[in-house]
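call fold(seq) -> tokens
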Amino acid sequence: DSPILQKDGSARLGLVEFQILWNKIRSWLNIFRQFDLDKSGTMSSYEMRLALEAAGFKLDNKLHQVVVDRYADDSLGVDFDNFVSCLVKLETMFSNQPKPSTTLSWVSLVTYYSEEICY
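ret:
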């Protein structure tokens, strides 16, 4: 189960689950605004790395590149919607790790979600 989505298998968010999700989205918006250094409404690969680290996700170089390739637009910018989608995916990946981890590596990606994150 994702730590930010419904937990009871009902495919619906209860009030507490919605509040958790809402608070995360507000926090992610603050991070996005902080690291969209040029205030363009999108983040570059460099800005994205800083933002992901501020959100608690330290990715190795290969995984960071895969994430940018997956969530960036044609001009390699990541907008807020894609930033949130990326964070939801990363939270799901971290929640399914067999033991607590502070760094996701390329091996983690391949082992857990290689197809899901790339498509």
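The longest strand covers residues 42-43.
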